[in-house]
Amino acid sequence: MAIEAQVNGKPVTFHVDDDTPLLWALREELGLTGTKFGCGIAACGACSVHVDGAVMRSCSVPVGTIAGKSITTIEALGSADAPHPLQVAWIAHQVPQCGYCQSGQLMAAAALLATTPHPSDDQIDAAMTNICRCATYPRIREAIHAVAGAGA
Amino acid sequence: MKLQRRYFLIGGAALVGAGVFSVWWSDKAATAHAERLTTGPGQSSFAGWLKIANDDTVTIYSPHIDFGQGSHTALAQMLADELDADWGTVRVEQAPADYAFGNTSIAKLFVPTMSGHPDVMKRLPDPVFSLLARNVPLQITGGSSAIRGTGQYGMRVVGAAARRALLATAADRLGVPETELTAAKGRITHTRTGKVLRYGELAEAAARRDLRDAPALKTRDQYTFIGKPIDRFDIPGKVNGSAQYGMDVIRPDMRVATVIAAPVRGGKLLSVDHGPAMAVKGVEKVIALDDAVVVVASGYWPALKGVRALAPKFSDGGHGHLDTAGIYAAQAQLIAQAKPDNHYGAGDVAAALHAPGARVLHAEYRVPFLHQAAMEPFAMTGHHADGKLEVWGATQDPLQTRNLLAQFSGLSIDNVTFHPMIMGGGFGRRFPPYTQIIEQIARVAMQVDHPVKLIWSREEDVKQGAYRPQSLGQLQAALGHDGTITGWQTDYAQFADAESEVVFPYRVPATARRHFKYISNQVDAYWRSVNSTQHGFYNESFIDELAHLAGADPYRFRRAHLPAGGRHLAVLDAVAQRSGWGTPLPSGTGRGIALVESFGTICAHVIEASVTPDGTPKVHHVWAVVDCGTTVNPRNAQAQVQGAVLMGLSTALGEAITLTGGAVDQSSFPDYPVLKLADAPPIDVHFIESDAPIGGIGEPGLPPAAPALANALFVATGKRIRHLPTAGQLA
Fold it and tell me: Which residue of A has its CA nearest to B681?
């Protein structure tokens, strides 16, 4: 059946079964491959997107539940002309290694700063539960603090 | 003379440019083929690896695949430095999967040396060249080899040779001696007249010159890009979602497939009823392979539902009796039988162990199978049409991948194209011989009339892994009257003989290392740092136990057994000094130290740790000191070391692959827990820079992590961790 929603500011219609995870609808229907498949059970966070501004693990969000909602993926976190401050910081701090988890890390960090502009280390620990096997964690923390500090 | 030179190269000595690379470019056919693959109008190729365009753009072809190690950028720094390029004009491209970009010539050079001279082979300090020898033809990314191999013997030499050709061309054109010319930032200047020629206008004529003479390379004081924290090329695409991994390939009218293989490695598919999968909306085809079933559908979700609907029957290949405890028991029994497959060492260990008054210590250590757990599960896309097979994917050897695709599809190599993609992590998992998806995609693509992307679920990724071997080590040593070690014996049971990889830096009069070959149903795979992980844990835990037996400080005890004035001692001293070794700590907190050389790099860690009331180890701080000779890109090298430390801690704290009935028990991150940000301690990394031979950087930071942690936990709790992971042992 058809499910209508907004993705990255544009109206879209998904033509997949209701139980299809949002992740696969984004990747296979819309070709938005920046959102990654990591585990399929919401354990790793590689598939994190924003649903009405809240970070969600799209591998475990059935597309049938997002009708009428507004989805933002890594492709629209910022733009080439106006990157998100976290994207700028991610480059300045040379955060990624293999990079596969970084779309999800950035979406999680952006959601954190949207609600908590100046997070403590404990708040970063609690919010940033996405897995990075390269263990880029020290620079993720640095980059979040850099953006939070710059906005102070 | 020839043999000696080869030995030096194998040993990683600083004989830069002495012959190896000239083999690459003296293979005229390969060089010409490389040029045809990469060079268009207005572009000139140097040895196939460097291209200079008329508009001054400098393009470097990396045979290594990016998986976050940063070697694309570092290799470009090495070549551009020798070339005296303008960094703003430098680009890196992935070399195609082709013989022209393989390391075949290097391997040909080494294989006869190795087979003909076992004494040389025995003294190989690390696995990269034995890996080369076993995998001809190759185009590998692994063994921490990019910088110290391709970079030192390849990129720098090509850059320097091209620079010389550009200078000679400029001298001809201006009618002046070369000595009056200077090269800098992509231009050649005639100082006296102020005339300037751009590389772009010299390249075409320069590329026709013979490059074969080994050029002089820069010294440390002349570097412009080597040693600088230059931004990596690959990062912008990894923060905006545009980087394309193997998982991200989309072809017109593509189908998506997923797979379930025999749960017991070595088992075969006995039967499967296709019906339940075919009843799932979107499923188009079920393909039975020798040991697996593949479901092809309109998308991943219906394919997964299709696989889950199946009830395939698999045999256990005769391995149904294997379990984790049984493997350890069998390994201990092998050692008890005292018939080692390989035996190394020097001196009379038995005499030392039985000497009157000797204090003797025995300990048994156990480490489990470990999964690489790269964040990107396997994914490959294949399209068979008009007798040709085209495949996209991410492996640690594109050339061997292409060969295997030809073998499994039955097509000739010329009719097979492989497009190497960025890897979402590798850590040794993506070496073609055990990258099962290569065979699967070849067989599936031949049976599907559309492009088809085969994706492994995370569960398949964990259960069908190629693990770091489960290994058991029994160590014994004797302390003499003066409290120093008089004899040391390591007996270990696992598949591979670790002798060529493991470095024992301590001065002990009598040593013995005995390998007992244990074969399970699991593939013997490479895992980041390979044998140095378990043997680093054995050796650095045991020497710590000996220090405590001797009543000595573990740092000073190690110190007393290291050669004076050596690099190992300098690294150990530096890490002790930086960590405040010996200063008081709160009660319940301990400091542990460990020193491991691997892949030509010496690395020592100090870890400060305690245990929470519920028995969970808590790492407070890590100090790492690394001597890899030269850090080409210090910021990237720091990231590699930090990542390696954390991966080492993650495995030591909680990771294990266990078997029941021959099948893997774990299935995803909840039962194969990878360390998260909240548990990542601060890590201080310090590099000792020197003119010592350049070492690897992707792996050496890992092996000292587990023993340094175990040694710290012993001080903190009094409990000696001899089995990994630590989880559940400190409650």
Answer: A138
The reply to whether residue A44 touches residue B375, judged by beta carbons under 8 angstroms, is yes
Q: How far is B63 from chain A (nearest CA, A)?
A: 17
Residue B534: CB atoms within 10 A of its CB come to 29
**Partner residue opposite A37 with nearest CB, options B231, B247, B373:** B247
* pLDDT at residue B96 in the model: 83
Tell whether B167 and B307 lie within a shared domain: no
pLDDT beyond 70 at B9: no
The pLDDT of residue B499: 93
Position B484, amino acid? T
The answer to whether the CB atoms of A134 and B458 lie below 8 A apart is no
C-beta atoms of A100 and B241 within 8 A: no
- Of B188, B205, B238, which residue is a domain's last? B238
Q: Which domain holds residue B297?
A: 247-317+378-455
Using a CB-CB distance cutoff of 8 angstroms, which residues of chain B are in contact with residue A112?
none
**In terms of DSSP bridges, do strands B187-190 and A10-15 run parallel, antiparallel, or are they unpaired?**
unpaired
What HEC string does B355-373 produce?
Answer: CCCCEEEEEEEEECEECCC
B641 in the same domain as B589:
yes
Co-location of B111 and B42 in the same domain: yes
Q: How far apart are CA B326 and CA B323, in angstroms?
A: 5
Candidates A58, A59, A94: best to mutate against B (most CBs of B within 10 A) is A94
Query: So what's the ipTM on this one?
Result: 0.98
* Domains in chain A with CATH codes: 2-76 (3.10.20.30), 85-150 (1.10.150.120)
Chain B environment of A47 (Cβ under 8 Å): none
| Token duo for residue A16 | 């997949």
The answer to whether the CB atoms of B422 and A77 lie below 8 A apart is no
Question: Sheet holding B90-94: strands in order across?
Answer: B43-46, B50-53, B58-62, B90-94
pLDDT digits (tens, 9 = 90+) for B636-688: 999 999 999 999 999 999 999 999 999 999 999 999 999 999 999 999 999 99
The pLDDT tens digits for B227-276 are: 999 999 999 999 999 999 999 999 999 999 999 999 999 999 999 999 99
Quick check: A136 and B643 CB within 8 A? yes
